[in-house]
Amino acid sequence: MGVVSEEVPTHRHGAGRPSLLVLPQAEAVPVLAVDVGVEQVSVALAGVGGRLLGVRSWTVRRGQGTPGDVVEEIGRARVDLVDELGCEPTRAGVSVPGVVRRSDGLVHEAPNLHWTGVPFGSLLGDALSLPVDVGNDADLGALAEHTRGVARTAQDVVFLSADVGVGGGVILGGVSLRGRGGYVGELGHMVVNPAGRQCYCGCRGCLETEIGEDALCRALNLPAGTPRPMIVAELRSLAADPESALHRLAGFAEWLTLGLTNVLNLLAPELVVLGGLLAVLPPAVVSSVTTEVRSRSLVGRAAGSVRLATSALAGDAALVGAAELAFERVFAVS
């Protein structure tokens, strides 16, 4: 298939003929990777090894991207990328922020997209004339971090990401935790505050209502709906003032600590990777949350100190994970 190439290493160690390095060719068997976000959709042609060869992104109004419109725009982006790069994808992997049935790509429910019972895998597959695999965004973020990011050496990992919504992906024993039908990891919908705010899912007091984008805006005294770049800029400015960061984000950090303590007691991961807006939290806040989670978690005290790390893939985690999902199937059938 021309998936790898062999090269002579530039540095030699010891006597004898050096072994050839076997390296993946990024352009071999490219796949189409799609990240359907609540406010942005991204499409990439991706090569072996997690390399994004080209990307197209566009914004959508929150909750107003209909499945048909999204499919149509993805088709246009695919044509643009193929024309630019001169290579056709063999398969597509798609990330969606919702409850997804992996077997056929049915989006059972994506509250923040306002999608219910959408056969997105078949809709997109028919439009692209490609086999399509669909997964939950946080599950694919966990997969990406485990294969290409900060969790490569860890066996038990939780990926917790916060944007408009909050999602979680779980790796246990080096394998993605799927659950019945692939429905698992909705950590953002753990109820942590029964008297709290109404969640888009219909329940009240979900973790998402306390550590999602809207909650972060409240903590930072920013108006609801503040553009993402402004939220990120505010968080980065706080990084230079640890005392102010700890003060302004004290309530937010307490809810994050509560959620992570529950996760640690339930799953006992060795590593928690923070993604999305959580990856931009000031280091002082991440350090404080780490200390609190270690002290409060019964399982953590018994099993040893959990590590918290911010995502190495930043905003590309779901996109890289979508590519990895497609490659899993490409190589499984080749």
UniProtKB/TrEMBL annotation:
Gene3D superfamilies with a match to the protein in the record: 3.30.420.40
An annotated Gene Ontology molecular function: kinase activity
InterPro entries linked to this entry: ATPase_NBD, ROK
Keyword Kinase applies: yes
Keyword line: Kinase, Transferase
Keyword Nucleotidyltransferase found: no
Protein family: Belongs to the ROK (NagC/XylR) family.
Protein name: Sugar kinase of the NBD/HSP70 family, may contain an N-terminal HTH domain
Species assigned in the record: Allokutzneria albata (Kibdelosporangium albatum)
